[in-house]
TrEMBL record:
Originating organism: Streptomyces spinoverrucosus
InterPro entries noted in UniProt: 6-blade_b-propeller_TolB-like (IPR011042), Glc/Sorbosone_DH (IPR012938), Quinoprot_gluc/sorb_DH_b-prop (IPR011041)
Protein name: Oxidoreductase
PANTHER family membership: HEDGEHOG-INTERACTING PROTEIN (PTHR19328), HIPL1 PROTEIN (PTHR19328:SF13)
Stored Gene3D superfamilies: TolB, C-terminal domain
Coiled coil (residue ranges): none
Chain segments carrying region Disordered: 24-61, 366-389
Domain of life: Bacteria
Biased composition (Basic and acidic residues): 379-389
Domain Glucose/Sorbosone dehydrogenase: residue ranges: 73-373
Matching SUPFAM superfamilies: Soluble quinoprotein glucose dehydrogenase (SSF50952)
């Protein structure tokens, strides 16, 4: 069922946010829109794994909403798929993790994560399952504490009663700068079984270019939280830098990493990530002629995107838009956009937070109307099942 949104309500909500926050943040601190959607003319170089020829997806794709999986979620943020097909979803503001039966939509709470201190854009955010989940049953979470942003892992014991199934958190990584805005929050295990984390600069722009800071970075670490072997800077978890607020991470079929990033006043970005590369913030926003910085492969005006989660399916990156209230498809040719980005579901379900690849051509998509910046209606928030091409 398509949920009709009221444009007037959305405009009033955006105006109120501008007055209270000083800029239209949508988790990115964006401001007045300028320009339109454009693919980039330049991109990061392909990794060696992408050297072989590959099929380019068609310029035009499609999206079909198969069904609403579940409703009534509060500030859903992170999403992880269990081996049996069920989903784990985090509540940013409640600090809880809930299991969703994808067949029936039934929700059961695992428990509350201790130490979460929600405020502004902070709280319980990204989720990821251990690469060895079948044997260790570990769930990883990124959250804002009273002093920082950190990553913990917890044992998920399905044999215990609902609400008591999370073990004590083991903090594997701490010290990521926190702020009322720009806390990053996405975590994901890559094809190399290393843990990647997107961080924000917490509103302090200078952190992004400081390689000694963990703010405004993509981090790469072992499952124990140590700098991963092969990282570009010695004894550092920093994998790439010069970011503003990264909340989308995904790999394509050639194991190449892509990341979505909130802009400020002009351009939101989709970047192809290379180890050690500098993506420019705050020196540049969007594309530039300065060869010191990597250009995005696609960019959007801030009212069209405010991107959070991304996923890879059917030869394209699929990107959820918060302020843009739509799902973007970016067809790929290696590490370049092969055609203009294409949008779907514009205004149908409101703010879109997280998109996760499922089996075949399926995606899971979460809405984000209850995050304090939306206009929640009956049933919000929800998880949708999509078929894409």
């Amino acid at each position: 069922m398509i949920v009709q949104r009221r444009a007037v309500t959305a405009v009033l909500a955006a105006a109120a946010l501008l007055l209270t926050a000083g800029c239209s943040s949508d988790d990115g601190g964006g401001g007045p829109p300028q320009g339109g959607t454009t693919p980039s003319g330049t991109s990061a170089q392909s990794s060696p794994s992408g050297a072989a020829a590959e099929e380019t997806p068609p310029a035009e794709g499609s999206v079909k909403v198969v069904r609403t999986v579940t409703e009534g979620l509060n500030s859903p943020w992170g999403l992880a798929a269990l081996p049996d097909g069920d989903l784990l979803v985090s509540s940013r503001d409640e600090g809880t993790i809930t299991r969703v039966d994808t067949e029936t939509g039934r929700k059961s709470e695992l428990g509350e994560v201790p130490g979460v201190s929600p405020a502004g854009e902070g709280g319980l955010m990204g989720l990821a399952l251990s690469p060895d989940y079948a044997s260790d049953h570990m769930v990883y979470a990124y959250f804002t504490s009273a002093s920082d942003n950190r990553i913990v892992r917890m044992l998920y014991d399905e044999q215990k009663p609902s609400g008591e199934q999370l073990g004590a958190p083991d903090t594997i990584f701490r010290g990521i700068p926190k702020g009322f805005i720009h806390n990053g929050g996405r975590i994901a295990f890559g094809p190399d079984k290393m843990l990647y984390a997107g961080t924000g600069e917490s509103g302090e722009e200078g952190l992004s270019q400081d390689r000694e800071s963990l703010g405004g970075k993509i981090l790469r670490m072992t499952p124990e939280g140590e700098p991963a072997p092969g990282n570009p800077f010695p004894d550092s978890t920093v994998y790439s830098y010069g970011h503003r607020n990264v909340q989308g991470l995904a790999w394509d079929g050639k194991q190449r990493l892509f990341a979505a990033e909130f802009g400020q006043d002009t351009w939101d970005e989709l970047n192809a990530i290379e180890p050690g590369a500098n993506y420019g913030w705050p020196e540049v926003e969007g594309r530039s002629d300065d060869s010191a910085y990597r250009n995005p492969i696609a960019q959007w005006s801030t009212d069209e995107a405010s991107p959070s989660g991304i996923a890879y399916a059917e030869g394209s990156i699929w990107m959820a838009g918060l302020g843009g209230e739509r799902l973007w498809r970016i067809p790929l040719d290696g590490t370049e956009a092969s055609a203009d980005p294409q949008s779907f579901l514009e205004g149908d379900y409101g703010r879109l937070r997280t998109v996760l690849a499922a089996d075949g051509n399926k995606l899971w998509l979460t809405t984000s109307e209850t995050d304090g910046r939306g206009s929640p209606g009956e049933g919000d928030d929800r998880i949708l099942e999509l078929e894409v091409s």
